Each structure stands twice: as structure tokens, then as C-alpha cells.
Amino acid sequence: AYNRDELIAAVSSQMPAKRWEHTRGVMETAVILADRYGADPVKAELAAILHDVAKYWPIQKLHQMMVEHALSEELLHYDKRLWHAEVGAFVAELEYGVTDVEVLDAIRYHTSGRVGMTLLDKVVCLADYMEPGRDFPGVNNIRELANHSLEGALAAGFDSTIGFLLSRRQIIFPLTVLARNDLIKQLE
Ligand code: DGI
Ligand code: FE
Ligand code: FE
Ligand code: FE
């Protein structure tokens, strides 16, 4: 098994320096959000370290792993940018020995979201949206919302992604819409 430093070395070697900086930002932010909202900061940091482990793997390799290991069939019909999350969870378990299902799910759903996101899912997904290196229209609004509403901030994150996909007439993974609606319901 890998200790924290070994895991960091193994994961960082699989991506360009800039993407590793992003992961560093997600780690820091996930711990802050976990402390703020009552999630386990150790689990949040572990999920953050691994969340983008497969982000820079070749698309053919992601595709091959999805097929070979019978990972989500449905995802294959949607945007390739969603695949690294599913493969990342698989690799976290099989290669890096993560056994905690909460951590594996936070990795698996960090991009798409899901209905009934756990506290840990929300923390990791929101940290991914708002880490200090992120710069997209609306990110400061998300950071402000995150000071008082985990669900409000994350819903704003999904609104931003869905709006971006709509503006480019791209296909939206239905689970993202369901995840967003579920968060809005939790705000009512
Ligand atoms: O891996 P990161 O860039 O840190 O962040 P991410 O895993 O959230 O990014 C995934 C990308 O996937 C993001 O730029 C938007 C794109 N995408 C394409 N289709 C969908 C989608 N994201 C979501 N949530 N839902 C989609 O249907
Ligand atoms: Fe990602
Ligand atoms: Fe995300
Ligand atoms: Fe990320």
C-alpha cells in the first residue's frame, strides 16, 4: 500500500506540473470545506489527491479500460471528458489500494455529480470547481456561496457547467442535470 507521500509522488508523475498544481489546490480546498461542513478531512484529501489521476491518460486507454473492466457502459455514450472520473475510481482501488467506498465514490462522481451526493462527494466536487487556480466566469460567486452553503455553491457550479455545454450545443450527461436538480431541491 501507498502512504501519503508515495501516493502524491505516484499521482503527480502522471500529469503535467500545471495539472498537479490544480490537484494541490483541490487538496487544500477540500480539507477546508470538509472542516467547514463536517466531512472527514482525511478522506477528502485522499479523494482529492486521486481525483484526476487518469485525466491525462490517452483517450484510447480510458476507453479500453472502461470496456475491459466493464465500467459504466452508459458513460461511453457521453463526453470523453467524463471518463477520467470513472477510471480514476477504478485505479484508486485496484492500483492504489483505496478500499473506502466513500472515497472511491467521491472520485467516481467528482465530474458528473449524482443524485444523493454524499457530504464527501459534495466537498470534493465543489473543491474541484473553486480551488484557487480556477478562473472561469462565476467562480468568485461560487467561492462566496461556499462560505455559507455547500449545496448552493455546488448547484452554481453545475449551473455553470450546464450553461457552458448548452452555449456550445454539446451533449449533457443526464446525471449532471439530475444532480443539479437534486441540489436545488435540497436548498428549498
Ligand atoms: O478534471 P477537471 O478539469 O479538474 O474537472 P472536471 O472533472 O469537473 O471536468 C470535466 C469536464 O467535463 C468539464 O470541463 C466539463 C466537461 N463535461 C462534458 N460533459 C459534461 C461535463 N461535465 C459535467 N459535469 N457533465 C457533463 O455532461
Ligand atoms: Fe476531473
Ligand atoms: Fe468537477
Ligand atoms: Fe480536477
CATH architecture, please? Orthogonal Bundle
Strand content: under 5%
- As for the number of domains, it is 1
CATH topology: Hypothetical protein af1432
In angstroms, what is the radius of gyration? Answer: 15 Å
Most strands sheet: none
| Name of the level-1 CATH class | Mainly Alpha
Element order: H for helix, E for strand: HHHHHHHHHH
Q: What percent of residues adopt helix (DSSP H or I)?
A: 55-70%
The ligands found in this model are: 2'-deoxyguanosine-5'-diphosphate, fe (iii) ion
Distance between the termini: 43 Å
Protein name: bis(5'-nucleosyl)-tetraphosphatase (symmetrical)
InterPro entries: Diverse_Catalytic_Enzymes (IPR051094), HD/PDEase_dom (IPR003607), HD_domain (IPR006674), YqeK (IPR005249)
Keywords: Hydrolase, Iron, Metal-binding, Nucleotide-binding
Pfam families: HD
Question: Short summary of the structure?
Answer:
64% of the residues lie in helices and 0% in strands. The chain has 188 residues and is an all-alpha fold. The protein has a single domain, classed as Hypothetical protein af1432.
From the structure above, extract its key features:
single chain; binds fe (iii) ion; mainly alpha; 10 helices
Task: Write structural notes for this entry.
It catalyses: P(1),P(4)-bis(5'-adenosyl) tetraphosphate + H2O = 2 ADP + 2 H(+). It is an enzyme of class 3 (hydrolase). The structure is a single chain. Helix content is 64%, strand content 0%. By secondary structure, it is an all-alpha fold. It has one domain: Hypothetical protein af1432 (Orthogonal Bundle). Helix 4 (59-68) packs across helix 5 and helix 5 packs antiparallel against helix 6 (101-108). The model has no long low-confidence stretch (mean pLDDT 98). 2'-deoxyguanosine-5'-diphosphate binds next to helix 9. One fe (iii) ion (FE) binds next to helix 7.
